Amino acid sequence: MKLVRFSQGGGAQRLGLTDGSAIAPLSNWGIDTGSMIDVIERWSELKAQLAEISEFTLPLDDVRLHAPIARPNKVLGIGLNYAEHAAEGGMQPPSEQMWFAKPATAVNGPFDDIKRPVVSDQLDYEVELVVIIGKRCRHLSREDAANAIFGYCVGNDVSVRDWQLKTSQVFLGKAFDGHAPFGPWITTADCFDPADAGIHSFVNDQQRQSSRTSRMVFDCAAQVALLSQVMTIEPGDVIFTGTPSGVGGLMNPPTWLVPGDVVRAEVEGLGYIQNTIVAEKIGEVVSQGQNG
């Protein structure tokens, strides 16, 4: 199944199922849910009912898609998780997982604008497979970790390279408002195999990244298992699982994103997200709407 969060004509944000071309609003089927996190937490109760939905009547072209989860409790990302990406930066693949966090204010919609910040012109893209956690748990084995995954999305770990690399702590360069677009929907784990899917990015229709998820150094289950040794993972937590080679900052010369550029990130079997770069204006504040 594919779960979406959407609005129509500037109205309230709603939840629905999609077949990839149209939406079945959950409220039309008598399903009362407060948020996407609520759906995930109640999945064992709702799954059978949602599986009965067969009429998708609201065209995707008539709605605005929002990030599937507005305010995740955690947005986490792993670094250098493709050997080819480490190599293009002159590094060896890491022997241990390298983690950073992105704040909830970084969350952005799958087709919303990405702002180039006023404090930097070194704006870069990173297409990533995104994992959505489905259960509250701790200290998972690798096998149990796979069962804790609710679903998958496409993401772009937008990075401001000079802020990322000026110190040993990369957090600030990963933390700018709106720099974690993901979506376009959550594809549930029973409908997608993350083991070997194509992963690609394009800037203005020019391909920049192309790889397969089978080339990850640490696969999705290994990532979730390790995180669970450190913290309680919770329904709706968002994990960016790493990017392949081809980022703009490691091109010769470096090629940064500029206002007007259109970045498309896609994962085979999950669809794509596409965002236009715009210049940030002083005083702008990100608003992602209702929680969850």
Automatic annotation (TrEMBL):
Record GO terms (molecular function): hydrolase activity
Keywords: Hydrolase, Metal-binding
Rv2993c-like N-terminal domain residues: 1-68
Signal peptide positions (record): none
InterPro entries per the UniProt record, alphabetical: FAH, Fumarylacetoacetase-like_C, Fumarylacetoacetase_C_sf, Rv2993c-like_N
Tree of life domain: Bacteria
Every Fumarylacetoacetase-like C-terminal domain range: 74-278
Enzyme Commission number(s): 3.7.-.-
Gene3D superfamilies for this protein: Fumarylacetoacetase-like, C-terminal domain
Enzyme class of the recorded protein, top EC level: hydrolase
Secreted listed as a keyword: no
Family: Belongs to the FAH family.
Protein name per its UniProtKB record: Fumarylacetoacetate hydrolase family protein
Species name: Sphingosinicella xenopeptidilytica
Lineage: Bacteria, Pseudomonadati, Pseudomonadota, Alphaproteobacteria, Sphingomonadales
